[in-house]
Structures are given as C-alpha cells and as structure tokens.
Amino acid sequence: MNLSPFAWFSKKRLERRVEKSWETFRFPGIFENPPNVTVYCGPGPASTWPGIYLACSLQKFYRNSTHHLIIHETLADLASTLPWQPGLHTYSTQTGQLSQEIPAGSLLFNATTDSTGLAEVVLAISPALSVAPEGCDSANVRLRVHTESYPEKVFGICQALGIPPDRKWRPSVPPRLIEAASRILAPVSHRSLPYILATSQAAAVLERRRAELPLRLVILDGKGRDIPEGIPDGVLIALISGASAVITDRDNIWVHASALGVPVLGYDRRGVFQPWGKPPPRGETGLLDEWAELLRRGW
Is the separation of the CB atoms in 171 and 81 below 8 Å? Predict the structure, then answer.
C-alpha cells in the first residue's frame, strides 16, 4: 500500500473491503517497525493526558523506535510522568513551529478526535501516516473505537492496531515536582498533612450543605485560595497527585485528577467535562451523594 503523507483513506473503500474480506486487510508495513514514533498532544490537558497514556503503550510496544512527543510548552512537565522520557518537541502558539525538528517519515499518533493544530503538525514534520480515532479530520488513518471515555478510548486505539495497551499504568509524578508542591503546602517543614484539594465553587457546595470534611481543605482558586495564582502545570499536577481526594467544578482539574488516578468528584454544571470513568454529576444533590459514597468507601 503506497500512501503519501496527505492521502486519505476512503471510508467507502474501507467499508467495501471489510464486507468482502476483512481477514485480508493489512495495515501499512510502517506499523510493524517504525524508525520514529511521534505522539501529538494538542493544547490543554484534555488532549495531552490521552496522548501521554497512548505514548506509554507505544513506548513499550515499539521498543526499538525513537519516540517523540509534541506538547504545549506549558504542559511539558506532564511528559516526565512517563516510564521513559521521549524526545520533547514543544510549541507555544503555532503547533507547526516546534522547538526541535522531527525526522520526516515518522508514524504520527493523535489520541483524541480533536484535530486542533494537527494539520499544521502534519505539514511541518511530513509523517508517513497520521493515526487518530474516527472523527479526527486531519488524520489519514482513522480508527473506529467504541467508547468515548478515557483512558478506555486510548486502549481501543491500541487494540485496533494490534498493540497491547498497558491498562495498569498510571502516571508517576517526579520527586522534583512533589518537592515544589510540598514547599507551597508546608513552607517550613516541606511535609504536608493529608488534604483534600478543591476549587472554591465546589467546596462552597459542601460547606453550605454542611458535608463532612475529615481532612484539611486546600482551596485552589478564588479569594480565599491557599495556592498561589499562576503556578506551573507541573506543580499543579503534583498538588493534585498528593491529595487524598479532589473536588472540582473545573474541567482541567477533573482531567488532571482522573488521569493521575486520584479520587475525584466533578461538579459539571454545564455538562462540558471530558469523559473519564464515571460521568460527574451536574447538580448539588448528585455531588453530595457522591461525596458521601466516597467517605463511606474511603480512599
């Protein structure tokens, strides 16, 4: 199969081949032993964490390949949670303007249907193929995955390609970021007591309804915040990873906590949270019910 970097798989052609003889279908040979594997993470945690999860499984499967990660410069610390550090290629405002070049002919992956910035990356690095879930317009290999929830969607991408997904892996925040978080929580001792991390609006619901709060409540935002404004995202994920539980009405905090495997309660008033595991409630009653359930179950 001879495909240019800008070729498109025809949905109609693929459907005909599947109907007649799916067993004879073969992915292009580059999938067997690519010299370079690149994962693109669009701007924001909702694109970056799925990319990190995908990069982990790809690192373990393509052990002889050189791995690259395209990531927004403010989220570059998330790459340090991977088992092995890939080559980092950061961008700021233009996704096609990378801090370091990537060899042409790479096998490029995008873990979400969000194609923001992907077309610019394809033009910049000239990959052999661009792979993404069905619905991503800037990929020429689109995989049908029968779930919208993460990280299961990433596992589905891997399975569609015959790559064993690492279902047990969870990100590990490096000590340097944990130390930076400890200096904020306990400036003198650098040893913080167990805490619940919460956004002000979500915490206000629990306090107003007199919910049980067995641990110190650390407020992330608002007027009475305990965390300085504008901390780097690397320190933010360290604060989240060190919490006994997280309560939030902010999508980015929901995604961070879910990806890190921290017990998290989302207060999704507008119904915009990216699906990670169990959908969060949209009302106060649902939030209180899930909080009570978490307290009974423990963390």
Answer: yes
> pLDDT tens across 2-49, in order?
444 433 443 433 433 334 444 555 667 889 999 999 999 999 999 999
Phi, psi of 197 (to 5 degrees): -95, 130
Nearest to 18 by CA among 136, 143, 112: 143
Out of 3.30.70, 3.40.50, 3.30.420, 1.10.10, select the CATH number for domain 175-297. Answer: 3.40.50
User: Looking at domain 11-160, which of 3.40.1190.10, 3.30.390.30, 3.30.365.10, 3.40.50.2000 is its CATH number?
Assistant: 3.40.50.2000
All CATH 3.40.50.2000 domain ranges of the chain, comma separated, are 11-160
d(CA 107, CA 111) in angstroms, rounded, equals 13
Beta strands in the chain (DSSP E): 36-40, 66-72, 87-91, 107-110, 129-133, 141-143, 195-198, 216-219, 245-248, 264-266
Q: What is the pLDDT of residues 179-209, one digit of tens each?
A: 999 999 999 988 889 999 999 999 999 999 9
* SS3 label, residue 60: helix
Q: What predicted TM-score, i.e. pTM, was given to this entire model?
A: 0.89
Query: Do 297 and 263 contact (CB within 8 A), yes or no?
Result: no
Distance of CA 11 to CAs 8, 18, 116, 123, 238, Å? 9, 11, 22, 23, 43
Q: Rounded to whole angstroms, how far apart are CA atoms 295 and 19?
A: 51
Q: Quote the distance between the C-alpha of residue 4 and its chain's center.
A: 29
